[in-house]
């Protein structure tokens, strides 16, 4: 798996609305302040792991809007697309190689 601590996609949407293309492993203290493309694994938080059972593996900040959402192992491995859970965002993307974010066109 790539060293996700050292890479981060562009989270500044100003220059041509550039969206993150790489996941960023967020620090434990930043779950409530997650930004676009930030990821926090539930294994790092025993209390969260117990609440969400084995169905979810991580919390991911939507690469479009930054809204945190739970993702499954299938989504993290690229086998299933991720859809933003925000009512205001239509983010649709796939995670490749457990690090790269590929934005998908809306259906």
Main attributes?
single chain; 107 residues; alpha+beta; four-stranded mixed sheet; three-stranded antiparallel sheet; 7 strands
Description of the structure:
The protein has 107 residues and is an alpha+beta fold. The chain contains 2 helices and 7 strands. It has helices at 46-52, 73-76; strands at 24-25, 38-41, 58-61, 68-71, 82-83, 92-96, 100-103. The strands form 2 sheets. Strands 1-2-3-4 form a 4-stranded mixed beta sheet. A 3-stranded antiparallel beta sheet has the order 5-6-7, with no helix packed on it. It is globular. The relative contact order is 0.18.
Q: What structural category characterises the helix and strand content?
A: alpha+beta
How are strands sequenced across the largest beta sheet? 1-2-3-4
Stretches where pLDDT is under 50 for at least 5 consecutive residues are 1-15
Radius of gyration: 13 Å
List the helices and strands and how they pair.
Layout: E1 24-25, E2 38-41, H1 46-52, E3 58-61, E4 68-71, H2 73-76, E5 82-83, E6 92-96, E7 100-103
Parallel strand pairs: 1-2
Antiparallel strand pairs: 2-3, 3-4, 5-6, 6-7
Concise description?
The chain is built from two helices and seven strands.
